[in-house]
Amino acid sequence: MVRTIFGADRKKSGIVKIHGKDVFINSPSDAVKLGMGLLTEERYQGIVPQFSIARNITLPNLSAISNPMKINFKKEEGIAKNFIQMLRISATSIMQRIINLSGGNQQKVILAKWLQSGTKILFLDEPTKGIDVGAKKEILNLILDLTQKGLAVVLVSSELNDLVHICNRVLIMKRGQIIKEVSNVPSDSFLQAEVSA
C-alpha cells in the first residue's frame, strides 16, 4: 500500500489526500514534490550502492547543491557531515561507499536522504528489518525524535514491539483491507488485536 501511495506501484483505485485535499501521484517524483519520502523494505531499493554516503544523502535534492554546470562539493560535504553527526552514522568518512556500511547505518543514511530533501511525510516499510538489536533500538528512538519535531511517520512493521514503541494508532490489514484499528492503548491490547485479527 505504501508503495502505491508513493507512486512506485500502479494504483487500481482509491484517493490520496494530504491535509484533506486530493492529491494525484503517478510516480515517486510526484510524491517527493508533495513532501513524501519512502524508506523501502529492501534497503538496496533505497540506495545507490557504489555511491558515497554524501552522494546518497544529497541525491533526492541535488538542486540544493548544484547548478546546471556543476555540483558544489563543499556544500554537499557540509550537508553530509551535518546528518552524519545528527543521526550518529558510524562511518570512516563521508566518501565511504554506502554499501560498506552496516545495515543500521545504511538505514540512517536513507533517513538522512529524506530529511535533507524536506520530507514532511515519511513512509517506513520494515525499518528495523535485518539489523541488530542495538541498531534497532537506536533507529526506533530516532524515529520517535523526528515525530516530536513535527515529521509525520507512517510505519509498516511485522514487529509488534516496533508498533508499540512508535505508534499512537495502528491499522491492521489483511489482503489489502483494513480490518481493525487500535488507538492509544496499552501494548497488551495491541497483542490481543493482532491475535484476534
Summarize the structure.
39% of the residues lie in helices and 17% in strands. The chain has 197 residues and is of the alpha/beta class.
List strands and helices in order, with pairings.
Elements: H1 2-5, E1 16-18, E2 21-23, H2 28-33, E3 36-39, H3 53-58, H4 73-86, H5 103-116, E4 121-125, H6 133-148, E5 152-156, H7 160-166, E6 169-174, E7 177-183, H8 187-196
Parallel strand pairs: 3-4, 4-5
Antiparallel strand pairs: 1-2, 6-7
Helix pairs in contact: 4-5
Top CATH class of the domain at 39-160: Alpha Beta
Mean pLDDT over the residues: 86
Record the strand order, biggest sheet. Answer: 3-4-5
How far apart are the first and last residues' alpha carbons, in Å?
19 Å
Query: What class would the helix/strand composition place it in?
Result: alpha/beta
Note the total helix count: 8
Give helix % range. 25-40%
Give an overview in words.
The protein is an alpha/beta fold. The protein has a domain at 39-160: P-loop containing nucleotide triphosphate hydrolases (Rossmann fold, 3-Layer(aba) Sandwich). The protein contains eight helices and seven strands, in the order αββαβαααβαβαββα. It has helices at residues 2-5, 28-33, 53-58, 73-86, 103-116, 133-148, 160-166, 187-196, and strands at 16-18, 21-23, 36-39, 121-125, 152-156, 169-174, 177-183. The strands form three sheets. The protein has a three-stranded parallel beta sheet with strand order 3-4-5. It has a two-stranded antiparallel sheet with strand order 1-2. Helix 4 (73-86) crosses helix 5.
